[in-house]
Amino acid sequence: MKQINVIKTGSLKAKEITKKGAVATMDVPEYEMGPEDVKIKVAYCSVCGSDPHLVEGIFGWKPPFGIGHEVSGVVVELGEKAMQKGLKVGDRVAGNFLKFCGTCYYCQNGQQQFCEHAGDYNRAGMSETIIWHESQVYKLPDDVSLKKGCLLEPVSIAVRMMDKVQPKLGQRIAINGGGPIGLLGLQAFKMMGATDLTLIEPLADRRALAVKYGADHVINPADEDLAARTAEITGGLGFDVLVDCSGFVGAVGNLPPLVARGGMLLYGAMYPNDFEMPLNLYQYCYFNELTISGYYVAPYCYPRAAQILSRFELDDFTQTVFDIDDSVAAFEAQVSGKYPKILIRCNQIEGE
Hints:
The protein is α/β, with parallel strands linked by helices.
């Protein structure tokens, strides 16, 4: 089958798209089916903001390896014991790229995100087919297309953001970074009753999308005084909640002063694994009593994300589509920053 893989720079004659790596569409063997497995003919796999960073190598992964985890498709085969969810051949599905074992200490302790065996079924989604354990697969609502269905995973991250923040009606909330997760999180906070909902983002197109999705304020940190604008919006108090969705190490250290006393600062992106950020513990953790945290993947979120998927405005995220053979062009488009989201069409599914 065809699969988009990360390869070492220099082994591909096409354009180099990152500093340390490149992508190519390659023929690879399929995984073998297990008795509790589900084989999916992949329709779409969207490109996550972390995927180009994986290609670049900033998280320490070494090529070659398959890539992609935001998947939708159609069930084409079921293992003989894959009957717990009532899935059928022909069902339109999406899923969780991680399989939580359910038996380790963390799974038993309500902390699936730390499952000691979660990588066992972590298989590349930018493929013509994928085989996942039944527990990873979720049937899409009838009113959600396969194009939008591949966004179940990022919507699950927005749900996870809500779980971490536990927002209260009327809180002043800001998001730093207007990529897909930032814009989906903004929509979720709007549903939860946030006020003075603010996006901090240098790209004008993404600020415009934030306004379309309900932002009360947008800030361009490239030419506006961030501290002054925050004081203006919040009456000098700071934001009750501030979530970083940028992953930009040049910006994250400027966020603690923008948070209200007793507020929450959530670092909700992926950062280089060797990045360390100075933090004045006296000022922010002792004197201001900030809650500073992050989140890793989306445990317990997928069923609720599937239920609420159709309430998110997703059209802007599904406009730019590349075929699986055009992997280099797709990733060049992704790193250009010109598009809210890039989708890879892995198969043409009849009726879509």
